[in-house]
Design brief:
Layout lengths: L4 H7 L7 H14 L3 H6 L23 E5 L33 H5 L1 H13 L10 H11 L10 H10 L2 E5 L10 H26 L5 E5 L1 H4 L11 E5 L11 H7 L11 H11 L2
Parallel strand pairs: 1-2, 1-3, 3-4
Helix pairs in contact: 2-8, 5-10
């Protein structure tokens, strides 16, 4: 079927391997609520419409994890179409003498807590002390030449994509005048269809190979969709909660992925960790 122009334009930016599944998913959304996509065409929403399906730039056969948050950041510069990847953030580390994470990372609460959880998981911080002072020590060493740690958010995003993360939200859009839970409900048929397509690939390969990572109560609502039972799952509170930093399940899950390490200097990272605990 022919979708509104903004949808067709957004589809031109996805990896071609996703086109059949995305068109089927959009058709399912349309069947559930024929007015929804036409309504969006007449309203303001984030991310900018061309980035609506930005996360689907990752080829379907590379997907190993589907990370689902609640919805896009409520700021135009920040909403990129990838969950938790704030477009306003470039540098991870503060340039101030006693600074820790950059001001823009600290402004993006969920991203800040996610990074702190990764730092705890890999031993750069302890659960007992993720204070500004502790972060300052990590940041100063992280910025040293050869530290082995990534320096920017685009590097973190690339590491996530390289590990096979499809970075989605329960609602693909944010509208200031609509409760996120309501838009998330409208997008459920779309996500159900996407997950069904991924499960069909699992069945062809003969093994569960995609893991769902659901963060927050809105994302957890997807468990009501029967197809989610066919995937391995990791479920946690939303990262805007401080408790996320000390979530042992998340620490264990992410630790082996080494998302904060640069691809070039993994050996140097081991040296950095040794010196930081001496």
């Amino acid at each position: 079927m022919q979708f509104p122009a903004y949808i067709e334009q957004a589809l031109t930016l996805v990896d071609p391997s996703w086109i059949p599944a995305l068109r089927a998913a959009l058709s399912d959304l349309h069947k559930a609520d024929p007015a929804y996509l036409l309504q969006l065409e007449k309203t303001d929403f984030l991310p900018e419409s061309r980035r609506l399906f930005a996360a689907f730039a990752l080829p379907v056969d590379q997907v190993r994890y589907v990370l689902i948050g609640e919805g896009p950041y409520p700021r135009a510069e920040s909403a990129t179409g990838f969950c938790f990847m704030d477009g306003a953030v470039k540098e991870l580390w503060s340039h101030e003498v006693d600074g820790g994470l950059s001001k823009k990372v600290n402004r993006a609460t969920s991203l800040r807590n996610f990074i702190k959880m990764l730092l705890v998981a890999e031993g750069y911080l302890t659960e007992a002390d993720t204070s500004i002072a502790a972060m300052s020590v990590v940041a100063q060493r992280a910025k040293l030449r050869g530290s082995g740690l990534i320096q920017t958010l685009p590097e973190l995003q690339q590491n996530l994509l390289g590990q096979g993360f499809l970075l989605l939200n329960a609602s693909l859009i944010f509208r200031s005048d609509v409760a996120p839970v309501n838009d998330a409900k409208a997008w459920q048929p779309f996500l159900q269809s996407i997950l069904t397509a991924l499960n069909q690939r699992q069945e062809v390969l003969g093994a569960p190979m995609v893991r769902l990572v659901l963060w927050g109560k809105i994302a957890e609502q997807l468990k009501k969709i029967p197809v989610t039972d066919l995937f391995l799952q990791e479920i946690a509170e939303h990262p805007y909660n401080l408790s996320f930093i000390c979530n042992r399940q998340m620490q264990s899950f992410f630790k082996p992925l080494h998302l904060l390490q640069s691809d070039i200097e993994r050996t140097a990272t081991a040296i950095f960790k040794t010196s930081s605990t001496s």
